[in-house]
Amino acid sequence: MLRISTAAAIGAGAATVQAAAPAGAEPVRPTALVRSLAVSSPRSSPSGRGAVMLSMDDGYLAMDTVRRMLDDRGQRGTFFITPGLLNGPSKIDASHISAMTENGHEVGAHSQTHPNFTKITQSQRIAELETPKVYLQSITGLPVGSFAYPYGIDGRNSTTDLELYLRYERVFDTAQYNQTALQGRYSRAQTLIRRTCVDGSNHNQCLSMIREAAVRPVIASLFFHNIDTPINPSMTQLTEMLDLAQTLGVELCTASEAFSSHRMIANAGFESSSVDAYPWRWFKSGTGGLSITTEDPPPGLPGTRSLHLHTSDRSYSQVAQAIEVEPGTTYVLSFRARAVSGPAWGTNCAYGSVTALDYAQAPISGSQVRSGPIMATNTSWDKYRAEFTPSAACTRVLVGLTIDGPWGGGRVAFDHVWFGPSSMADLG
Ligand SMILES: [Zn+2]
To answer: Ligand 1: distance of its center to the CA of 85 in Å?
Structure first.
């Protein structure tokens, strides 16, 4: 799993972008920059560290307080700003926004006036996406490639996703521990980064996510709005989180760095003992009843904590994650799978598969790794692997882990799921 690029490399990159993008010029697309940094940066072992992506929304003056706290620790964050909410009492202004990018933080957009995008017209949607981008770029001189949905997944719909796809590189929404709400919620590959709201009540969970990032190559994605107010962390809690990351040596990465990572999508996510750990890494979708659990290996069976996909009927169900790729590079997709249970599997079976999809969710040629069939008797782990090379036009893929249709339902366990350049060793 990759290491996020070094702060020094990012600093140099940001300077390059700024110099190359004078007012009125075609902005440099930041994705190309961070992608090249990510690919060229050294990669840790699969048991290596992850990172924390800390972000704040709206535009309260607490943003400036947090920016200074991050600066004091040599950490970086991302600020999703709503320009229409600025300049009032207890709000930031342009000078605070300038200070963010000058100190290496990322500035993203959070709409112009904070509407619920499911309740406005098409022309309003476009204005809400374009106006803040222009405004923020005029202050920072940098392209704005990241957007966070107001109201998180409750304010999100596929129509807006499409408009976002045309205007932003990365889109963020919220992770809520309501699995039903997550179902069927992916429509565009770049909208897959979820954020866990730091609301003051889940402090211990946030700390455990940071600790996990210290030992696993995962991105702990956290966001909040203010400090010492309801549904936000206290100053004490925030300080403890930042200090913990610093003590453990966990890097705080920006939104664009989080997205550019070649993130391992399996063992990392499945090592947590909490089922709730998966929403901040996975999207879930499917045609039938799908449930997901993680589990320690049964006694006598080798393996690590695995992810189980259960279906209650004959359906095609998937969890997926977006990953940025370098066109022309050969990638490996691999996983291990075994049957856990299934009614009448003597003649029926489950399939597990990993497929890379392009933006249109069309399978990328050669990318499908399809197991089995996994009969109910396949209780030991079998390895499945494929290589593919994205076309020149393909910069992001959606990697989906799928259970495909046992009659009467069934359960397949996955572990050692790996996605990365073929030059890197996979998980075996
Ligand atoms: Zn907001």
So the answer is: 10
